[in-house]
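step: validate -> pass
step: tokenize input -> pass
step: predict -> running
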Amino acid sequence: MAPRSFWKGYLKLSLVTCPVAMTPATTESEKVRFHTLNRSTGHRVMSRYIDAETGRPVAEDDEVKGYERGENEYVMLEDDELEAVALESTRTIDIEMFVPREQLEWIWYDKPHYLTPDDPVGEEAFAVIREAMAATATVAIARLVLYRRERAIMLEPRDGGIVLWTLRYGDEVRDPANYFGGIAAEKPEPQLVRLISDLIDKKTVAWDPSMVGDPVQAQLLKLIAAKKQGKPPPKTRTVAERPSNVVNIMDALRRSLAADEKRPKHR
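step: predict -> pass
step: emit ->
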């Protein structure tokens, strides 16, 4: 059963408008979460804002946002002043432009959401926009207020629906040239590349979501179950030692291939 949508509004392209609903494409609801407790009483510990100078608790009505302009000097900003800065894009996804799909690189992607039609009457308009983007290999760019901030978003056709990605802000993306620019440009020996290619081929299997399972989550659940039953905690995994430097990469590759040939291959 699909979860309830957390946002409802309208998708608009020129004079074409249709009601839509949106749900995050990922979830962390199954993650193990903890409360902080007082060990001596077993009661939950509550957090409160404390004045850094007086040490006294601060009433909620006295809490205000502040921008630091110097040492211990702040500009105070009221909630209504902050809200006035945001644009009115809380309920309408007004498509501003389209860009070729291949031009938007992965590094700009932030958080994915599923966008679906929210009314049978609007399904045709929704489908026309989706299919036109698929036919032209483009994605739509718009703006929307999500998670209390206005964000640039990308709409990408996917199966019968649309995937809506929030996009990172321009100042959040670092220039890769600052990190990759100093790496030597010389090509490795072709024989080494062939050996690695053989190793990749032997280790290539079909994708399965179990490959990205969370082993820490599984261990936490085992630990919690043991504590509930009054049993000793399960043995923890040992931390792998850092491998020593390999002097001869060719010999190391040959040993890797030979060892891999002895293992059964799963596809």
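step: describe -> The mean pLDDT is 83.
step: cleanup -> pass
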